[in-house]
């Protein structure tokens, strides 16, 4: 049973798959007569194809139990898809599992442990697993493309892969 190692999320490590949405290291400046701080362009929404629109939704994810079997992946060929956690608890965590765009290659899958203050924006065509909440029901603002055209390809993997609690512990032990 192949296990997937889990990495701590960073802008550099996630760059081949999209953008990390977080305040640390972001360009920012005051607006509204100095009463508001704007953290500018944390991610860019992609929207291609005829009659497509960028939509903002809320997804409520149920927590997954471990070990967690990974048997499917999906991608959105016509636009990006961003997940921004609505958590106010800095200890909240969730997982993302990605693979580069193009023909799916399971050997290139990467998993990232994300904190509740970090969002991700999957670039157009990046393979990813559906939302993986940990520990509790979790709400996410989702920004993605809606409209005409097929914007969701889903594949069933030939082999089941596993995400484990031990992998999460290893991610934090070696990447803090």
In short:
The chain has 176 residues and is mainly β.
Record keyword descriptors for this entry.
14 strands; 9% helix; 176 residues; mainly beta; 45% strand
Strand content: over 45%
* Residues in helix, %: under 10%
Radius of gyration: 16 Å
Order of helices and strands: EHEEEEEEEEEEEEEH
Q: What's the multimeric state?
A: single chain
Topology:
Layout: E1 6-8, H1 11-14, E2 18-21, E3 28-31, E4 36-39, E5 52-61, E6 68-75, E7 81-85, E8 93-99, E9 110-115, E10 119-122, E11 127-128, E12 132-133, E13 138-147, E14 153-163, H2 165-175
Parallel strand pairs: 1-9
Antiparallel strand pairs: 2-10, 3-4, 5-13, 6-14, 7-10, 7-13, 8-9, 8-11, 8-12
């Amino acid at each position: 049973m192949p296990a997937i190692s889990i990495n701590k999320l960073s802008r550099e490590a996630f760059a081949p798959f999209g953008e990390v949405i977080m305040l640390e290291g972001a360009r920012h400046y005051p607006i509204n007569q100095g009463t508001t701080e704007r953290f500018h362009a944390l991610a860019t929404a992609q929207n291609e194809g005829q009659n497509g629109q960028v939509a903002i939704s809320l997804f409520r994810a149920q927590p997954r139990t471990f070990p967690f079997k990974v048997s499917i992946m999906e991608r959105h060929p016509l636009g990006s898809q961003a997940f921004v956690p609505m958590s106010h608890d800095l200890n909240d965590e969730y997982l993302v599992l990605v693979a580069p765009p193009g023909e799916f290659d399971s050997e290139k899958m990467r998993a990232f442990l994300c904190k509740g203050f970090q969002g991700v924006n999957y670039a157009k065509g990046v393979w990813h697993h559906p939302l993986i909440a940990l520990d509790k029901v979790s709400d996410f603002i989702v920004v993605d493309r809606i409209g005409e055209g097929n914007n969701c390809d889903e594949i069933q993997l030939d082999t089941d892969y596993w995400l484990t609690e031990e992998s999460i512990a290893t991610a934090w032990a070696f990447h803090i």
